[in-house]
Amino acid sequence: EKGGHASFMLKEIAEQPKAVADTLLGRIDAEGSLTLDEVRIPAHELRETDKVVIVACGTAFHAGLIAKYAIEHWTRIPCEVELASEFRYRDPILDQRSLVIAISQSGETMDTLMAVRHAREQGSKVLAICNTNGSTIPRESDAVLYTHAGPEVAVASTKAFLTQLVACYLVALYLGQVRGTKWGDEIRAVIRDLAGIGQAVERVLGTMEPVRELARSLAGQDTVLFLGRHVGYPVALEGALKLKELAYMHAEGFAAGELKHGPIALIEEGLPVVVVVPSPRGRSVLHDKLVSNIQEIRARGARTVVIAEEGDETVTPYADHLVRIPATPTLLQPLVATVPLQVFACELATARGNEVDQPRNLAKSVTVE
Ligand code: F6R
User: Fold this and answer.
1) Is the pTM of this model over 0.95?
2) Ligand 1 mean position to 365 CA, how many Å?
3) Is the ipTM of this complex over 0.85?
4) What is the 8-class DSSP label of residue 54?
5) Which of 92, 129, 262, 347 has the most CB within a 10 Å radius?
6) Tens digits of per-residue pLDDT, 281-317?
7) 364 among known catalytic residues
8) What residues does ligand 1 touch, defined as CB less than 6 Å away?
């Protein structure tokens, strides 16, 4: 049932190109527009939406953090992202014009479910992004956009995460399409790029041997840090979470711009730091700032693992290990940048003798608070 793979996690990592393609299937029409019939929230209500609030836990929360960049850029609607467990215990400001998006692989996470119930009590519309047909969260929501990742067995979420990202981009683009923002041309171009993203993920998967080798060589480390900016920041958080849960190592993700505000004090000789570099095209300021951050940490002894676009040569002198990913539009980069981090965590955990499908102390679905 593992299809020749040593673990469900490896199988599910390998299934990602198909999971991504399946989640797009039937949702882009021949003209390159989105048809999200499942989103049964009427267009006029979506046009009146004045706030989007995303609630989720763990890896799904990281997908939400990335979605915020896309939603605000393409729709100009303010978007908040909150851990479901925090959301329900403060007094969040919601009304009929708020669109709440609940992201959950299982559809059974108690904290997320409670957040959904709270939002509906306030009169807000709730859209679920979910991987499990007929589960509780979609049943209690106004509408659902299913991710078509197929069953995810390994406790650590991989293919569900990538499909959650795809679903979030679809929602963001759809909101932009319905509301007719000035980004119309960009939206059409991104839809075209999304259609090719499965192949890009496949390319990344084909080049992972050096990442596995590196992971094995780091099995004796105590700490690994992850840095990113913009959408690369939640990718860094996700890389760190995967390493914590699978390898039982101390791992932290930081926004690279925060280095000087504290975390740079952690850098010492030989400390592995994984850095997600934004595309040098598009918002190139981001890229250049990150390259300076790599120089700063390397000058203090960090062993840099640099994840950068193919053809980006500016990073080469500062990379102890260079991991190449295909060029994508800035906002879509997490779909390719996350994959090496999954492989890295899985291999490092295996090298430490851990059971990757069933990490200690964790359950696949957290149905208690
Ligand atoms: C991490 C992981 C968890 C889940 C979280 C939410 O690899 O699997 O952090 O992402 O428990 O679960 P769902 O998406 O089922 O609500």
Assistant:
1) yes
2) 7
3) yes
4) E
5) 129
6) 877 889 999 999 999 999 999 999 999 999 999 999 9
7) yes
8) 57-60, 104-106, 109, 112, 156-157, 241, 245, 365-366
